[in-house]
Design brief:
The protein is mainly beta and about 1100 residues long. One of its GO terms (cellular component) is plasma membrane.
Length: about 1100
């Protein structure tokens, strides 16, 4: 028989235009808390806050919706950040001893200049005298001080020297350099003792007299230095190792903190040139040895008593492991107890010179895992809820779910339930970091992001805009008895008020919501399903618990109904070796307003739940584990179905994820068995006689098809592989299963071994066009029934990732209640339906009810990848308001997105989204119904992306800046643009060293001299080049450097459409660069501190 191969037709220009109007890949915004923060700064004039990270990122935040990110070219930790107040500029000090100056400009902020390798510059580029031989760390920068005039930067080093740089050129003023020898000469002989003063620990400018600075050395010496006369006005001979300094507002005194846990108050007088003792010296948590007070602040108030804030100082023996910050004012004393390390903190207070007092309004504390803001104006100093930067990982994220177009009533009830949870611990004052103006229009619809956590909580987030705001937290732990339950013994000593009275010092107060410790790992949430129309929620956990919850506005004390479903069905020969089930409470438990449990379904064995499905209109839930799946009627409280999917060789399925009894010998034996079978299964494999119609269709296709040269031959998987019975997906659908004339409720289940089970359901009241009413007495006694209609076995036994039923028009069936309440287009029930089954290796559409193959796409054979996530998404056109397409989106194990039309399964576009090594990012990806998605780039951050050309959630805001030292302002409107920013190249690099922003970023780094523009570059490098509309693949350069997706050699790639060949003529060699430097040094008036052309 002759076989004809048809040549693939060329691309259709009209179709390409439609695809450009439908699809476009953009990484838009990062949600959550920055991973591994290392520095903090605040601009009191612009009301902007900056956070630096250990990976070299700088993230700037203002009012909710005002946020942007900048990236250094190297993934080096940012150790300090300092704003130039009101100018939209900031300085950053990196761990590699480099200083960078940034500027915020319209559309793409840039790096003005940078000082690299300060140590080598001081030693080689300048002749400093007198200068003893220096150790490599002698000129390592320890502290920066920016003077109020913003034209001079003071730099303290480990060698005890203080250097001064002119801004914005970052050029060194060598005639102002203050070395340690100059200070030592003016010290009394008894204090000098031949000892070094140590590194410079703190630099502080006099609040009233410009040009005078406090210099604090590690040994304890503090010098008041006059920059104009280059003379020490006063010496403060401290004897305790110094940690930090802070001025009082009037400049009449300053406070020093020390490593013994104490602080001292020193007077500043004009007549006394040498002070031996402070006015007061206090160890607040003494007399026993205490830890160092690393930072201290002194703020004056109109009430007369200053507010003292300091971090550390805890007694070493008792509370040395606590992370604390103390607030003191008169008799009020609170020790804030955090669960992670304090990085830095600042106060929001009055900085106008004409004001007499500081009057702090808020305290902002940057911790290693969260940001905490304390209201200093409200008695008791409560904390403020954060509108952004909330710690998503307060407990480790285990799953997520997105809900679009949330009904207003449900949204209002969730908001009210969340406010009731805050109670008295939070204040409702306005957010103090309010810089910039959010120009983004209000969202057309409300969106929810639900995250399940290891501690058994489900958190509801407002994902409608740029700021991911917490709304409500649901806890499932109170449904069960756990090891950490409070004791019910009335004689419990922890309840004794006398014992509590003795433990009141220090006056600890737990602050923050980061809690990495779980009461019981079995509480972890694995699956979530929410019906936004009926307000029903299903959460499933690690120990086989499936909880159905309903929304209530009132507090309730009730007992939760418990039903047990045995998925093994008394099968012999299997023994569960994993963890035990959670014990439900046998007494009524209190449940606050919000989602409250209605019924608990416990699967046996108590293995982790791998799939859930909810159909609130039929009052049914389906759940699956590694042993099988079940169907439960939560209205009538009875189990409808339990099906075991175990294979006789599924021994690992009986051990559980928390088991410690896995046999190494058994694992090795199974591995060798697989290898031996794979060697002989190529040509000697026999196809068993199909028992179903789909197997007949698969066999016929296999006999007729010939593997194309571009395809990979896929070997079938062994039937006795471990964990083959794991249920991967569940699906409810109203479709044709028994015959082509009568449709009805069905349940579909797919397993890890490529098996698909389809059950026909008999639901009382369904099929006659109405759903049974809750009060119907005649139907309440009738139970739901399930009958096996089809059993399908995919030929290659690839795991089934997703199942979806399509109506007669090839469109997905609407969600429950959408069709009955006219919330969606009624599905086509006149033409034949089809079912789309996505396995890890291919996508396939079968006709219903005959289950014959219609079309397929072999993704593994063509692309060499495996499907990990699948979603059906509606893409709207940017050109035609009423045009949209349903598209199948596939995320593969390589991190790329493949888009197919349905039901034809023709490939549309492909985008590189996630780095293939980022397994956790791929596993955490969740899609929305309108073409967006989220995935974890760190344990605490979600990256938001869009596949739609129309639906993009992006920052859009304006910031008013002062131009230089002038008084007038201008407005910068900053927004996401579909362009690639240009990059300048330094002289010393023979390849373009790209310093790249995020694709949505509003900060870009350009190595650019502020006084001289780079000459000789093509015009395309000076402006922004538009991204070609036909470009359907996202460049890898969109990956942020501070995310786990970045790689070390990312900076050697070209930016956007620029390549090395494009700019080769404009690059210089190292020799040329050295010659250019020599010429620069000879030029009069040119600073040698600038290494860039």
């Amino acid at each position: 028989m002759m076989k004809f191969r048809f040549r693939r037709q060329g691309t259709d220009p009209q179709r390409e235009k439609i695809k450009q109007e439908l699809f476009a890949f953009n990484k838009t915004v990062e949600h959550g808390f920055p991973h591994q923060p290392s520095a903090l700064a605040f601009d009191p004039k612009l009301q902007l806050m900056a956070i630096g990270t250990k990976s070299g990122a700088i993230k700037v935040y203002g009012a909710p919706g005002v946020e942007f990110t900048g990236l250094h070219k190297d993934t080096t930790a940012v150790t300090q950040i300092h704003f130039l107040p009101g100018q939209g500029r900031l300085l950053s000090l990196l761990d590699d001893n480099t200083i960078h100056l940034w500027e915020l400009v319209a559309g793409a902020p840039r790096e003005l200049s940078s000082l690299t390798h300060m140590r080598s510059k001081i030693r080689c580029d300048f002749t400093l005298s007198p200068l003893p031989p220096l150790f490599p760390s002698a000129t390592r920068v320890t502290v920066l001080l920016l003077l109020r005039s913003c034209d001079l930067l003071c730099i303290g080093t480990e060698g005890g020297g203080v250097y001064f740089l002119q801004l914005p050129r970052l050029s060194l003023k060598d005639n102002h350099t203050l070395l340690q020898d100059q200070v030592t000469q003016s010290l009394p002989d008894d204090y000098r003792c031949g000892k070094s003063l140590g590194p410079v620990e703190s630099l502080q400018e006099h609040p009233q007299q410009s040009g005078k600075i406090l210099i604090g050395y590690s040994r304890g010496l503090v010098v008041l230095w006059d920059l104009s006369t280059r003379h020490a006005d006063q010496l403060f001979l401290g004897k305790q190792q110094l940690e930090s300094l802070v001025w009082e507002r009037t400049g009449n005194l300053f406070v020093s903190s020390h490593n013994d846990g104490g602080y001292s108050v020193w007077p500043v007088t004009s007549g006394n040139t040498c002070s031996h003792q402070p006015v007061t010296s206090t160890i607040p948590y003494g007399p026993f040895p205490c830890k160092a007070i690393s930072k201290i602040l002194w703020r004056t108030t109109q009430t007369g008593s200053p507010v003292l804030l300091y971090s550390g100082g805890m007694p070493r023996a008792s509370y040395g492991d606590r992370h604390c910050l103390t607030i003191q004012q008169d008799k009020d004393h609170v020790t804030l107890d955090f669960t992670s390390r304090v990085i830095d903190f600042f106060t929001v207070h009055s900085t106008e010179p004409e004001k007499e007092f500081d009057d702090p309004s808020a305290l902002v504390v940057l911790l290693e895992e969260e940001l905490v803001v304390i209201d200093l104006q409200t008695p008791g100093w409560p904390s403020l809820p954060t509108p952004y930067l909330a710690p998503l990982h307060s407990s480790a994220i285990t799953c997520s779910c997105h809900i679009s177009s949330v009904p207003p009533k449900l949204w209002e009830r969730l908001v009210n339930a969340g406010k009731a949870q805050q109670g008295r611990q939070h204040t409702h004052r306005s957010w103090p970091i309010c810089g910039g103006k959010n120009l983004a229009p209000p969202p057309k619809q409300q969106e929810l992001l639900l995250t399940g956590h290891e501690d058994g909580t489900v958190r509801f987030w407002d994902a409608s805009g740029v700021a991911l705001t917490p709304l409500y937290k649901l806890s499932t732990a109170n449904v069960f008895h756990t090891d950490c339950d409070p004791s019910e013994d009335p004689q419990d000593p922890s309840d004794d008020p006398d014992m509590q009275q003795e433990e009141e010092w220090p006056p600890f107060r737990k602050v923050g919501c980061f809690d990495p410790y779980s009461d019981d790992p079995r509480l972890g949430i694995q699956k979530i399903s929410l019906c936004k129309y009926s307000n029903k929620l299903v959460v499933a956990g690690t120990a086989g618990q499936v909880i159905v919850l309903g929304l209530s506005d009132e507090r309730s004390d009730h007992l939760v109904d418990v039903s047990v479903v045995d998925l093994l069905q008394d099968r012999e020969g299997f023994t569960w070796k994993g963890h035990d089930r959670l014990e439900p409470r046998l007494k009524p438990a209190p449940f606050p307003p919000g989602f409250q449990p209605l019924v608990l379904v416990q699967c046996l064995p108590p293995a982790s739940v791998t799939a859930v499905a909810l159909h609130a209109e039929w009052n049914l839930i389906a759940f699956g584990t590694s042993h099988g799946f079940g169907l439960f009627d939560y209205h009538r409280r009875n189990a409808v179905l339990a099906r075991c999917t175990l294979h006789p060789n599924d021994s690992l399925a009986m051990e559980g994820p928390l088991s410690r009894v896995k046999s190494l010998k058994k694992s090795l034996r199974q591995s060798f068995r697989r290898i031996r079978k794979s060697r002989v299964s190529g040509k000697k494999r026999t196809i068993t006689t199909p028992t179903s119609k789909v197997q007949e269709a698969n066999a016929a296709l296999a006999e007729q098809e010939e593997v194309a040269p571009v395809q990979r031959r896929i070997e079938p998987r062994s039937a006795d592989d471990s964990l083959s019975g794991v249920v991967r997906c569940l699906c409810f659908a109203d479709t044709f299963l028994r015959d082509g004339t009568h449709h009805g409720p069905t349940l579909w289940a797919g397993t890890n071994s490529g098996s698909v089970y389809a059950y026909a359901l008999e639901v009382p009241g369904v099929g006659t066009g109405r759903v049974c009413e809750r009060g119907g007495a005649s139907e309440s006694s009738v139970c739901v029934e399930a009958v096996l209609g089809k059993e399908i076995q995919l030929m290659h036994r690839a795991p089934v990732v997703s199942i979806c039923v399509l109506d007669g028009r090839g469109k997905p069936l609407p969600d429950p209640y959408e069709a009955s309440q006219d919330l969606a287009i009624t599905p086509d029930m006149t033409n034949a339906h089809s079912v789309l089954i996505a396995s890890e290796e291919q996508l396939k559409v079968f006709s219903l009810p005959k289950v014959s193959a219609k079309t397929k796409f072999k993704l593994t054979a063509h692309e060499g990848c495996r499907v990990r996530k699948v979603a059906l998404v509606v893409f709207s056109s940017t050109a035609q308001e009423d045009y949209s397409e349903h598209t199948l989106v596939c995320l593969t194990n390589l991190g790329d997105m493949h888009l197919f039309n349905i039901p034809g399964l023709r490939p549309q576009v492909r985008y590189d989204c996630i780095r293939k090594e980022d397994i956790s990012g791929i596993a955490s990806c969740v899609f929305t119904k309108n073409g967006q998605g989220f995935y974890l780039i760190s344990p605490s951050e979600y990256e938001r992306f869009s596949l739609s050309a129309k639906v993009i959630t992006e920052p859009l805001f304006s910031v008013q800046l002062r131009v230089g030292l002038n008084t007038h302002t201008h407005t910068l409107s900053l927004s996401h643009t579909h362009t690639h920013t240009h990059t300048r190249f330094p002289l010393f690099i023979s390849l373009p060293l790209s310093i790249l922003p995020l694709h949505h970023s509003l900060l870009s780094l350009n190595l650019l001299n502020s006084n001289q523009a780079l000459q000789g570059f093509p015009s395309g490098l000076h402006g922004q080049t538009e991204e070609p509309p036909s470009s359907l693949s996202s460049p890898i350069l969109d990956t942020p450097l501070d995310s786990p997706l970045s790689c070390a050699d990312l900076t050697l790639d070209s930016t956007g459409e620029l390549t090395v060949e494009d700019v080769r003529d404009f690059l210089t060699t190292v020799d040329e660069a050295e010659n250019n430097l020599k010429n620069i040094k000879e030029e009069e008036g040119r600073s040698t501190g600038i290494l860039i052309n």
